[in-house]
Amino acid sequence: NQSIDFGPMLETVATNVAGDGSVSTQVKEEIAELGLKAMGAGEDGPPFNFSGRAEKALISLGVDGFKSRKAFDLWGLLAAHPARADLAAHEGELRGLLKDRAAPGFKLEEGIKAQKPVITASLGAFALGDFKYHLSAANSGPQSAIDLSLSADGLSLPVGLLPPNADALTPSKIDVAATLKGIDITAAANEWISDLNLQGEGPVLSDDNADKVEAAFLSSGPVQIAFAPSHILAPAVDADFSGVIRLDHNKPTAAI
What we know:
Helix content is 20%, strand content 50%. By secondary structure, it is of the alpha+beta class. Helix 1 packs antiparallel against helix 3 (91-102) and helix 4 runs antiparallel to helix 5 (207-217). It starts with a strand and ends with a strand.
């Protein structure tokens, strides 16, 4: 059981069409006085009850290199053949449309900004002054990348939540940005599409084929997590850091 309430909203949409027919769209939605309440109970757990509120929230979503015509063709095929057995008869056409969608050049991003968010649960109130989150994924073949950034300040935790003397290590401000590299989203998508099997009632992807998809995803490795200049501030900590973690199968290394 949940409810959402909000004040005035303002939405802006900007769209550009490139010469090759690909579409770039940015959607931003600004919401005043956003609130959420939820309650319920798990099958085996105790009842839960929490609420959240923010003075203002900005939600953004962007796509770049979106081939809308191919996407509509794919949607039309799925809508015309919703049953798996029916769609299996068109597996070749489905693979072709999916491979068109998996071609390099597509980028997806999302972001959230919230002013003075507060979440209240059974443990107490968790509050922030400001919170920012941004995630983007670029399908660029061996140069594919996933970017993540988080920023928060004014953190306030419920009294008694942390052990004694831990307050000195509780961050009051966090600015962290990192990029995942050494991955190939295109190769992984194409491997998944090639191994897709809609015949029968078993999994559409076998365990062996799932391993092949994972290997394709990591094929341009070694996988690296590159930290842009980041900062964590707490009463007893003031740390600036940047660097790279290399996740080699045999010996992970780091230079921070």
